[in-house]
UniProtKB/TrEMBL annotation:
Phylogenetic lineage: Eukaryota, Viridiplantae, Streptophyta, Embryophyta, Tracheophyta
Protein name, UniProt field: Peroxidase
Record-level GO cellular component terms: extracellular region
Function: Removal of H(2)O(2), oxidation of toxic reductants, biosynthesis and degradation of lignin, suberization, auxin catabolism, response to environmental stresses such as wounding, pathogen attack and oxidative stress.
Its EC number(s): 1.11.1.7
């Protein structure tokens, strides 16, 4: 009897230990002893990069998003092609589109100079996202840290999991739910990141000329804005030309993205659907964020934390890459 209960006690203890390990939580003080200045190092490099490229903050937060949606926030998007890696950079949502990898390298070099082999590339993306938002006038927050880097990439996963601008609101919602972002507020708040940055004509020009084979433009596109966009993206022009996602305040992180949607000036189909899909639960959230910037900022921070928590590698899983582009020792 005594041995049974002590065996039981040991089993329970081991179960708790294992549960604890598999549920290792990120926290804001993870580097407070090993790299106390990491946030300001990241921020300083981004500030410098912004001098010559006002778009770079937008490009960096997008890397964090595209990282987190594919096998979790594990720096997988940063791995280059190699004998064993089929790079996510060549996946459909990323190719000729994601940018900022050179700036991530510069940040990593600066961080390694202060604290070698300590800070993961996945955490650098999370910290870069926060710095980019706050430097553009958006909210600041304490970033949860302690992610480790993957030794694998998943190009097929990137093709399948990252939302496309041509998808229906139902499909977008399903792709967010698939990574655990099953509250519709996450979709609306995070889409608000389209308050800065650019998009290429090829990703919305179907809306300007022949929407869904109708021979007409997208009826949910503002006709004044349509004229402007047709000038930027002529029918036979290069699909690689870019324009501002937020025509009102292109480089500022604010809530004008949501007032743009109310005047049918969402650039991507996936943007405008949040407001123009009949009966959608997203409409009232767009209205709320449009009328109250603090409400948007508060939800955005919470949703960034939710996104940053998608299946991180922690504890002794994964590794701390010394070069974000390569698995250690390869
Ligand atoms: C809701 C689903 C989403 C779709 C369908 C979507 C789609 C797109 C597309 C098509 C572009 C333009 C890319 C190009 O022209 O090369 C873009 C840009 C961008 N996206 Fe999203 N996105 C979504 C959600 C998000 C989220 C969650 C974030 C971040 C929290 C984000 C941040 C950005 C930023 C900042 C840019 C501009 C990047 C730059 O200028 O380099 N997007 N997005
Ligand atoms: C943060 O997480 C690390 C790793 O799980 C842990 O060692 C550390 O004690 C945590 N810090 C706090 C304040 O919880
Ligand atoms: C922290 O980093 C910033 C930016 O690189 C630098 O200006 C500052 O002197 C650093 N502070 C400490 C205490 O190392
Ligand atoms: C698109 O990407 C391919 C492959 O990386 C490259 O060869 C091509 O030059 C890129 N096109 C543009 C317009 O950037
Ligand atoms: C992902 O999509 C790209 C572009 O469509 C394609 O070239 C590539 O083969 C796809 N990769 C996988 C693993 O399915
Ligand atoms: C929505 O998702 C379904 C199921 O995955 C797919 O068959 C359909 O093509 C998607 N629709 C759009 C517009 O992407
Ligand atoms: C979704 O998130 C919002 C904002 O954080 C919260 O008020 C709401 O209760 C959540 N909804 C559900 C169904 O959990
Ligand atoms: C629009 O696209 C549809 C389907 O691809 C095509 O049949 C039609 O001829 C196009 N209309 C115009 C005006 O280009
Ligand atoms: C675009 O190119 C097609 C075929 O090359 C041509 O028939 C059409 O007139 C051109 N449209 C414009 C607006 O230049
Ligand atoms: C179209 O956009 C203009 C601002 O450029 C705005 O004044 C107008 O109300 C919008 N029209 C509609 C139908 O939303
Ligand atoms: C705006 O949102 C904030 C944060 O959620 C809230 O505290 C405040 O009461 C809201 N203001 C108005 C006018 O509704």
């Amino acid at each position: 009897m005594a041995s049974f209960s002590s065996t039981l006690a040991i089993c329970i203890a081991i179960t708790f230990l294992l549960l604890n390990q598999s549920k290792a939580q990120l926290n804001t003080t993870f580097y407070s002893n090993t790299c106390p200045n990491v946030s300001s190092i990241v921020r300083t490099v981004i500030q410098q990069a912004l001098q010559s490229d006002p778009r770079i903050g937008a490009s960096l937060i997008r890397l964090h998003f595209h990282d987190c949606f594919v096998q979790g926030c594990d720096g997988s998007i940063l791995l280059d092609n190699s004998g064993t890696i089929q790079s996510e950079k060549d996946a459909a949502p990323n190719t000729n589109s994601t940018r900022g990898f050179d700036v991530v390298d510069n940040i990593k070099t600066a961080v390694e100079n202060s604290c070698p082999d300590v800070v993961s590339c996945a955490d650098i993306l999370a910290l870069s996202a926060e710095s980019s938002v706050s430097l553009a006038g958006g909210p600041s927050w304490n970033v949860l840290l302690g992610r480790r880097d993957s030794t694998t990439a998943n190009q097929a996963g990137a093709n399948a999991s990252i939302p496309s601008p041509f998808e229906s609101l139902n499909n977008l919602t399903a792709k967010f739910s698939a990574v655990g972002l099953n509250n519709i507020t996450d979709l609306v708040a995070l889409s608000g990141a389209h308050t800065f940055g650019r998009a290429q004509c090829r990703l919305f020009s179907n809306r300007l000329y022949n929407f869904s084979g109708t021979g007409n433009p997208d009826p949910t596109l503002n006709t004044t804005y349509l004229v402007t966009l047709r000038q930027i993206c002529p029918q036979n022009g290069s699909g690689f030309v870019v324009t501002n996602l937020d025509p009102t305040t292109p480089n500022t992180f604010d809530n004008t993205y949501f007032s743009n949607l109310q005047t049918n000036r969402g650039l991507l189909q996936s943007d405008q659907e949040l407001f123009s899909t009949t009966g959608a639960p997203t409409i009232s959230i767009v209205n709320q964020f449009s009328s109250n910037q603090s409400a948007f900022f508060q939800s955005f921070v919470q949703s960034m934390i939710n996104m940053g928590n998608i299946s991180p590698l922690t504890g002794s899983n994964g590794q701390i890459r010394s070069n974000c582009r390569r698995v250690n020792g390869s």
